[in-house]
Amino acid sequence: MVIRRTLSRAISLATITLLSSRATRLFRAHKQINFPCSSPLYPRSLVFLSCSGFASSVSARETDQIPEELAKNANLKPGLYLVGTPIGNLEDITFRALRVLKSADVILSEDTRHSGKLLHYYKIKTPLMSYHKFNESRMEQVVLKRLRQGEIVALISDAGTPCISDPGMELAKLCVNENIPVIPIPGPCALISALSASGLATDEFTFVGFLPKHSGSRRKRLMVSADEATTQIFYIPPHKLSQFLEESASSFGDTRRCVIAREMTKLHEEFWRGTLGEAMKAFSLHQPKGELTILIEGRTESKVEPPSEIQLENELRDLISQGESLSMAVKSVADGTSVSRKTVYSLALKKFGKQLEMEDGSK
């Protein structure tokens, strides 16, 4: 009996020690869940946190990865849902986005094979329908018919927020015109991610996106951007980087600062910073991989100090000594400076009025 009690106490003590040790490890560090390594787009690990802030030890194979309460269709109203999806790292998708994708009647996808990997990982079995720039006009009426029938339609792009330099803009317009609800589901966006970390001005910016294919139209657009005082943001394919840098340096000047963001949220994320001239040299020998987000600083406004009264007086004196009438001298000085004609005329009368009266009297 004594031996049995001793063994029982020893087992209980060992169990408590084991549980205490496990709780301590959970408190000190998040327990990570490995993603499948079949695709380089998947992050290496994902941390699930409970409401209390402790990491969960449930493996990815033992859960649908969407909390049960979020997996249900919580009375989603019919309409077009614009769902933001990760631009690289799968941890950047929201629970709300996953719930909408799981609850939708159909998901419109730019590339069904690409999007299928995301849905497969999160065990979302909603049907996919191909919707891209080459079939956009043909598919619009098909999608509108389903929306009129009260279905929930989710639209996703290959990466980021739909309708932002991606298919869906015209569909969203049609839905708005027909009073069909268009609901944004916020998520990742390359231009905002790049802008926030660029180090350039963020209070005002111009999103240009992809430039025209025609060289004349492209250069004209770059000239417009070069004259703006706000940060300019472009989407550039990697094989067109050299062309873009050469043309933009010609329009903006090779001393204008720029930021080149690539592989954002991925393993090889990079923010290159320098002038357009330096960028041309840096990327002349190699072509980076992946879509590029390029930001160029706005034109610096140079403040022109208004001329002093002495400067205005000297200019008026020179013109009058050359035989110019008072009115013509005032006009010439006012046109050549930022000072109003009224101000210059008042100064001219004060400084040269009596002299002109004397000259007129002698004549």
TrEMBL record:
PROSITE patterns: RSMI. It comes from the Eukaryota. Residues 80-279 form the Tetrapyrrole methylase domain. GO terms for molecular function: methyltransferase activity. SUPFAM superfamilies: Tetrapyrrole methylase. Keywords: Cytoplasm, Methyltransferase, rRNA processing, S-adenosyl-L-methionine, Transferase. GO terms for biological process: methylation; rRNA processing. This is Tetrapyrrole methylase domain-containing protein.
